[in-house]
What we know:
Blueprint: E1 4-12, H1 16-24, H2 29-32, E2 36-44, E3 48-57, E4 60-71, E5 76-83, E6 88-101, E7 104-115, H3 120-147, E8 155-164, H4 168-176, H5 181-184, E9 188-197, E10 200-208, E11 214-224, E12 228-235, E13 240-252, E14 255-266, H6 271-275, H7 281-309
Helix pairs in contact: 4-7
Amino acid sequence: MTTRQVEHEITVDAPAAAVYRLIAEVENWPRIFPPTIYVEHVERGVGEERIRIWATANGEAKNWSSRRTLDPGNLRITFRQEVSTPPVAAMGGTWIIEPLSLSSARIRLLHDYRAVDDDPEGLKWIDEAVDRNSRAELAALKTNVERAHAAEEITFSFEDTVQIAGSAKDAYDFVNEADLWVERLPHVASVRFSEDTPGLQTLEMDTRAKDGSTHTTKSYRVTFPHHRIAYKQVTLPALMTLHTGFWTFTENDGGVAATSQHTVVLNTENIARILGPAATVADARAYVHNALSTNSRATLGHAKDYAENQR
């Protein structure tokens, strides 16, 4: 069996401990790493954990589970895929954070991998995916670590909730069945939807704004029947550099609380062009919050009608 070993590295203007923490805390990953859609903990122990990752590789959405060993003393994290997705037969590696000064560090990302049946085409595919994703991950990590302090003002989260006198399953089904949104949601003009792997969806849609204009968005979605749908938007409007979120359905005495949560990082470079030269970061926050909330509340309202009519 041919095992390939590769290394990528980058230097960042941030303390080594801060860099380690960002990589160690997996809930940060959809914000930091462009390919990552969603991550959840499966098991957690002292210095050991199992995580499940949904991410894109060469434009295709995949998911896998990894075991990680965390060594904060030496600023090292080793990882190993438990069950790899073909053409990958095995995949693992190490993050090594090396302090260069009090305010800078070198990040080294090591990978070792094999292709199914040592297939040369499979190995070539993995080479390209690892190289592309590693470069993207390290470049994004550099950008996001260095912006971490500045980004506090331009990163924000919010949620909208409606109470539904119906079942979580029916409310979940309405949001899950996005291929039917053209018929069900007035603000959706067209939808391109696929779910080649159960629970992993690609959703591209054209949405109508109040002024009649339409804009196209594309998201990857990860579904957990019948209580959660997580997503990451990959084609972004001009005012955002990041948009992730999830829909949750929590049963209670009155039926179900359906919530839409959003996390956004503003694209400050485009504020003047979109909102005018006098517009501030606060104006952009209010504008984006209102636009996303309007669509979320519309969808939740229709999900409420649907679920209550199913009773």
